[in-house]
Specification:
By secondary structure, this protein is α/β, with parallel strands linked by helices. The protein is built from eleven helices and 18 strands. Helix 2 packs parallel to helix 4.
Length: about 475
C-alpha cells in the first residue's frame, strides 16, 4: 500500500551509467521482451528494487501484472516527469556532467513504469527549466534523453514529450550576461500564483531587499511586497495530475543539499521572481553573507555599479568584463574561497522560496488558484548513482555512491538523502522548515519516517538510526554546520 512516510533505498554493485536508451539488461516479467538490451545496466534493477521495497502493488510483484506506480499514476492522467537538468556541464570542468544532472538511466524505469500505469491512455511529459545560459542541445546529447524517450515511446505506444520550460536563454561573456534570446517556452503558458497568507515568508526576520535571479532586484521585490508573495509557475506543471520528481543527489551552496524539494524551482517561469537572498548581513536585515565579512557592503556597491555599466555595453561587455572581474576577485576574493550571494548556512531566504513553491505545486489548481486540498500527486526517485559533493550544485565533484532513493514525499526523501550522506537533516533549513510547515503539513514527523534499506525487510524508524552510507563533503561555507 502506498505510504508517503516510507522511503526505500537500493544500491548498485558497480557505479556508472549505461548508454542510452538505457534498456534493462535483465528480462523482467512486467516489461515487454523487446525492452531488454545488451548493455549491462544495474541502475534499472536498483530502481525496480527500490519500488518493490516500498511494497507498491506487492500482490503482483514478480508477475507480468506488476504495476508499481499504479497507486500514483492512473489511466488517462497527464504525468510530468521532472529531472534535474540544470546544466549539461560542470562549471569549472565543462567536460564533466554526470554528477550535475539526472541521468537517463534513472529516468528510463520511471518512464517505463509510468507508461505501464497509464495502460495506453494519458500523456507523459518530461520537463524542466535549466539554467539560463545552459545549452539544452548539449544537455540532451550528453544525457541521451531524446534517444531514451523515443525508445520508451516505441515500446509503450505513448509519446513522451520533452519540454524546455525556459522563456529565454542568456548570452554570457566571461561570466557577464550581455543579452538574451527568446525561446518557445512552456507551450501551455504560465500562471501567476499568489500566496496572500500562509507563505513561508510570513514572520521572517529579514528586512533588507531581496535579490532574485538577475540584476533587476526591483522586479523581485515588486512580486514580494508586504504579505503577498507571487510566483510564475509552469502551466504544464499545473495541468499535470502527477509529478514524478527524479532529482540529482548533490550538495548545494545556498541550502546545503539539493534534491526533490529544491528541484521544484525548475517548474517556474520567470526565475527573477524567486527570492534567493536578502542584500547585506544579518545585522542589516540581510542574509547575503555573514556579519564577519566587512567588505561585503563595499563589494555590493562595486559589483552593482560595474554590472549596471556593463549592461549598457551589450555584446561589447566581454571586453571590460575581462578587465573588471580579475580586479574584483583580487580585491574581494574568489567565490570558491569567499562567502557571497547567500552561499552559506545563514541564508534564511531560499528555503522559504522553495517551500512556497512546493505548496503551490501541490495546492494550486490549473489556473494557479490556491485550494485547500492537494491538486496533484507526487512520487520521487532520486539519482544518487553518481552524486555530487563540494561546490554544488554546478561545480560539484563526482562521488560514485551507487544509490537510488525513492518515496512518495519530496520532504521525506530529501530528509533521508541528507541523513545517509552524513548531514543532520534538521540542521538544513529546507528540511527543518518543511517539517514545520503550516501551509503544506508534512505526511509525518521526522521520527516517523520508515526507511527500507534494500534488501533488509525491516525498516529503520526515524532519521537518527540511519547509517551514513555515502558521506558527501559539503560546500566549504557549510563545513561543520550540518554534520551528524
Amino acid at each position: 500500500m502506498y505510504d508517503a512516510s516510507s522511503v526505500a533505498m537500493a544500491r548498485t554493485a558497480k557505479t556508472g551509467y549505461p548508454p542510452a536508451p538505457c534498456d534493462p539488461s535483465e528480462r523482467f516479467p512486467e516489461l515487454p521482451p523487446a525492452a531488454c538490451g545488451r548493455a549491462s545496466n544495474e541502475v534499472y534493477g536498483a530502481v525496480r528494487r527500490a519500488l518493490a521495497a516500498l511494497g507498491l502493488d506487492g500482490g503482483n510483484a514478480g508477475t507480468p501484472s506488476w504495476n508499481p506506480l499504479g497507486e500514483v499514476v492512473h489511466p488517462g492522467d497527464t504525468v510530468l516527469v521532472k529531472p534535474n537538468f540544470v546544466c549539461g556541464r560542470r562549471e569549472s570542468r565543462p567536460g564533466e556532467w554526470r554528477q550535475i544532472v539526472t541521468d537517463s538511466a534513472v529516468l528510463r524505469p520511471v518512464l517505463d513504469y509510468a507508461a505501464i500505469a497509464l495502460q495506453g491512455r494519458g500523456r507523459i511529459l518530461l520537463a524542466d527549466s535549466p539554467q539560463g545560459d545552459s545549452d539544452f542541445g548539449l544537455l540532451a546529447e550528453r544525457t541521451g534523453v531524446r534517444e531514451m524517450c523515443r525508445r520508451v515511446s516505441s515500446l509503450a505506444g505513448i509519446s513522451v514529450e520533452i519540454i524546455d520550460l525556459r522563456r529565454e536563454t542568456l548570452t554570457v561573456h566571461r561570466g557577464v550576461v550581455t543579452g538574451t534570446r527568446p525561446l518557445s517556452g512552456d507551450p501551455a503558458g504560465y500562471r501567476m500564483c499568489r500566496l496572500t497568507h500562509g507563505s513561508h515568508f510570513d514572520g521572517a526576520p529579514g528586512t533588507a531587499r531581496f535579490y532574485g535571479a538577475s540584476y533587476d532586484a526591483s522586479e523581485t521585490n515588486s512580486a514580494h511586497a508586504g504579505d503577498a508573495h507571487s510566483y510564475e509557475v509552469s502551466a504544464t506543471a499545473l495541468a499535470a495530475d502527477v509529478i514524478l520528481s527524479v532529482p540529482k543527489l548533490k550538495t548545494h551552496k545556498k541550502c546545503g543539499m539539493t534534491g526533490a524539494l529544491k528541484g521544484l524551482v525548475g517548474l517556474t517561469g520567470n526565475k527573477n521572481l524567486l527570492p534567493h537572498y536578502r542584500f547585506g548581513a544579518p545585522p542589516d536585515g540581510g542574509d547575503q553573507f555573514p556579519p564577519t565579512r566587512g567588505a561585503g557592503s563595499i563589494e555590493n556597491w562595486f559589483v552593482g555599479a560595474g554590472k549596471a555599466a556593463l549592461r549598457r555595453c551589450g555584446p561589447l561587455a566581454s571586453l571590460p568584463a575581462g578587465i573588471l572581474k580579475p580586479i574584483a576577485y583580487m580585491i574581494f576574493g574568489r567565490t570558491d574561497k569567499v562567502v557571497r550571494s547567500g552561499n552559506w548556512p545563514g541564508n534564511d531566504t531560499i528555503w522559504r522560496t522553495v517551500l512556497d513553491l512546493a505548496a503551490i505545486l501541490t495546492l494550486a489548481d490549473r489556473e494557479g488558484v490556491i485550494r485547500d486540498v492537494p491538486q496533484r500527486r507526487f512520487f520521487c526517485v532520486c539519482d544518487g548513482i553518481v552524486a555530487g559533493e563540494g561546490n554544488g550544485p554546478l561545480d560539484a565533484e563526482a562521488v560514485d555512491a551507487g544509490l537510488v532513493i525513492a518515496g512518495g514525499s519530496p520532504l521525506c526523501v530529501d530528509a533521508v538523502c541528507a541523513s545517509i550522506c552524513g548531514f543532520d537533516p534538521m540542521l538544513l533549513p529546507i528540511v527543518r522548515g518543511g517539517f514545520g510547515s503550516a501551509l503544506l503539513p508534512p505526511p509525518c514527523g521526522p521520527g516517523d519516517i520508515a526507511t527500507l534499506i534494500e534488501p533488509s525487510p525491516e525498516p529503520v524508524r526515524g532519521l537518527d538510526g540511519l547509517p551514513v552510507i555515502a558521506a558527501l563533503r559539503p560546500h566549504f561555507a557549510w563545513t561543520g554546520a550540518t554534520r551528524r
